[in-house]
Amino acid sequence: MKRYELPPLPYAYNALEPYIIEEIMRLHHQRHHQAYVNGANAALEKIEKHLKGEAQIDVRAVMRDFSFNYGGHIMHTIFWPNMAPPGKGGGKPGGVAADLIDKTFGSFEKFKDLFSAAAKTVEGVGWAVLAYDPLTEELRIYQVEKHNLLITSGAVPVLVIDVWEHAYYLQYKNDRGSYVDNWWNVVNWDDVERRVRAAQNHGRSSLGL
Ligand code: MN
User: Fold this and answer.
1) Roughly how many angstroms between the first and final C-alpha of the chain, as a whole number?
2) Does the pLDDT value for residue 153 go beyond 80?
3) How confident is the prediction for the chain on average, in pLDDT?
4) What does the DSSP 8-state code read for residue 133?
5) Distance 75 CA to ligand 1 centre (A)
6) What pLDDT digit, counting tens, does each position of 5-62 carry?
7) Distance of CA 50 from the midpoint of ligand 1 (Å)
8) Beta strands 156-162 and 138-145: pairing type?
9) Within a domain: residue 197?
10) Ligand 1: centre distance to CA 76 (Å)
């Protein structure tokens, strides 16, 4: 089975300042994301040993562990390029993404309000996700608690925001709302557009893995 690797950030650790400080980005990428990569690989190793008859494993526990860590790896792999330095990031979407947002939510402002509310109200730790649903050919917003729910949905995430405390606490303390409000200044709409177009092609290659 394939092993996962930590993808490099597509910008410098301080590139998202002042909205997300360098210390957060460095720890978040090098420690937290790396831990999910390691955790997913460790679970795969156990499954492989089990398949070869070399080890007895608690299949349910290992599957759960894999789902959590793999989910974390995938979500962060989407999250980093979903952002870009202020100036390049921020503003409004164009293209197919803008059309679908208008069609689904009525306007960009309405979408932004709903997505922000979803992010601010995730219970405990998790994510808000904008996803393209190839079955209905529409966008939808959903919440993810921890990382686990990602693969229960056939929809393809195109824009995600991490609302685990490790994503903002060093800068915003417990003020998740200000973090979410400021995050819009670094949203990379070019990347969202690319993901929507890829998802329209049945989701193939949209994760960029
Ligand atoms: Mn995170």
Assistant:
1) 15
2) no
3) 93
4) E
5) 8
6) 999 999 999 999 999 999 999 999 999 999 999 999 999 999 999 999 999 999 999 9
7) 30
8) unpaired
9) yes
10) 6
Whether 152 has a pLDDT exceeding 60, the answer reads: no
Are residues 129 and 100 part of one domain? Answer: yes
Distance 52 CA to ligand 1 centre (A): 33
| Pair (192, 151) in one structural domain | yes
Distance from the alpha carbon of residue 27 to the mean position of ligand 1, in angstroms: 10
Between the CA of 188 and the centroid of ligand 1 the distance, in Å, is: 18
**What domain range is 30 assigned to?**
22-79
- Report the domain count for the chain: 2
Q: How far is the CA of 162 from the centre of ligand 1 (A)?
A: 6
Query: 165 C-alpha vs ligand 1 centroid, how far in Å?
Result: 8
pLDDT for residue 99 is more than 60:
yes
CA of 110 to the centre of ligand 1 (A): 26
Write down the pLDDT at residue 149.
59
- The reported pTM is 0.93
The CA 53 to ligand 1 mean position distance, Å, reads 35
- To 5 degrees, how large is the angle CA 74–CA 194–CA 190? 105
> What contacts 57, CB < 8 A, 6 or more positions away?
46, 47, 49, 50
Q: What's the pLDDT score for residue 155?
A: 86
